[in-house]
Amino acid sequence: MSKAGALDLASGLGGKIEKTEVLSAVEQYERYHVFYGGEEEERKANYTDMVNKYYDLVTSFYEFGWGESFHFAPRWKGESLKESIKRHEHFLALQLGLKPGHKVLDVGCGIGGPLREIARFSSTSVTGINNNEYQITRGKELNRIAGVEKTCNFVKADFMKMAFPDSTFDAIYAIEATCHAPDAYGCYKEIYRVLKPGQYFAAYEWCMTDSFDPNNSEHQKIKAEIEIGDGLPDIRLTGQCLEALKQAGFEIIWEKDLAVGSPLPWYLPLDTSHFSLSSFRLTSVGRFITRNMVKGLEFVGLAPKGSQRVQDFLEKAAEGLVEGGRKEIFTPMYFFLARKPLSERQ
After folding, report:
1. Which pathway features in its UniProt record (predicted)?
2. pTM reported for the whole predicted model
3. What are the tens digits of pLDDT across the range 108-149?
4. Quick check: helix, strand or coil at residue 270?
5. pLDDT, tens digit, for every residue of 7-23?
6. CB of 228 closer than 8 Å to CB of 35
7. E strand residue ranges, 9-107
8. Distance (Å) of CA 124 to CA 86, 105, 119, 121, 202
9. Whole-angstrom Cα distance, residue 323 to residue 225?
C-alpha cells in the first residue's frame, strides 16, 4: 500500500484541475447532488464531468488514508485492513479462474492497486480502463515503481463506450467502480461485448439492499450522503443489477452480498468508535489530524482553496457509509460472477 505523506496529499489535491480552479470545481461538483438541489437525471446526464471532478478532487485523500486499493473488504478477526483488501482481490481472481497468459480487463481501475495485485497473484496481463487522466498518470508511476509496467497498462476510456474490438478479453472484473455508470444495462452490455464467449465477468457492486425503504427519509438521507461523498449518480438495488446483467445477455453463475456474515463489519475502518493503529489515518483521531492538517495546508497556500470542502464531503460520505452499513440498507460488496454464453442462443 502507498504511504503518501502530507506533502504528497497537498501536491495531489485537485488532480489535473488547475489549483486556482479547485474551489470552483468543488462548487460545481456539489451542485450535482441532493444536498445542494441537484437531481438524479442531471447527475446521470453529466456523469463523465461529475465523476472526473470527483476523482480529481479526492484521489489524493484516498491514497493518503486508504492506500492504493480504493475499496472495502469483508474481514476476519485478527486480520488487518491491508490483509483483508489483498484477500478480497485474490478471491476475485480465483472466482474468474485466471491463468498465466490471460488478457484481463479492470473496469474503472482507479490508480491500479487491485490491478497490480491481481496481475502478480495470477501471472496475467491486466489492462485498466479509467476516464480520469490524473489517476492514470499516478497509476503509471506506481506501475513503474512496482516493476509491472510490462504486464499492466492503462487506457483512458469511458466504460460505457470502450474502443476495444469485440471479444478481446479472457476475463473482466470491476471493483466498486461500475456504480458510477449512469445506466447499469448499458455498462454491462459494453462489458459483454468486449468479453470472449464462454468467459467470465465478476464484480463487487455498491448497492442498496432489500432493507432500503425509499419512503423512509432517514434512509434517503443516508443514500444522498453516500452519493455526494462518493461521486455516484444513483445507487441501484441489488435486484436491479442482476436484472441488468441478464438483459445484457449474461448467465448468472452465483451472487451474494459478501457483507452478510462477515466476522467484522466492512465499515469498521470508518467507524469513529473504533481505534486501530494499522489504519490510524481513518480513525476519528486520525481524521481530526488530517482535517486540521488540510486546513493548515490550505491556509499557507500549499493546498489549493477548496481542499477543506473536499474533506467535508468525504466526512459526510463516511457518516453515510457507516450508518448505511449499521442499518444494513447499503453494501459495497454485492458480488456476482457472470458468464458470457459460448453462443447467443445458449
Report:
1. Steroid biosynthesis; sterol biosynthesis
2. 0.92
3. 999 999 999 999 999 999 999 999 999 999 999 999 999 999
4. helix
5. 566 667 788 888 889 88
6. yes
7. 103-107
8. 16, 10, 5, 8, 16
9. 10
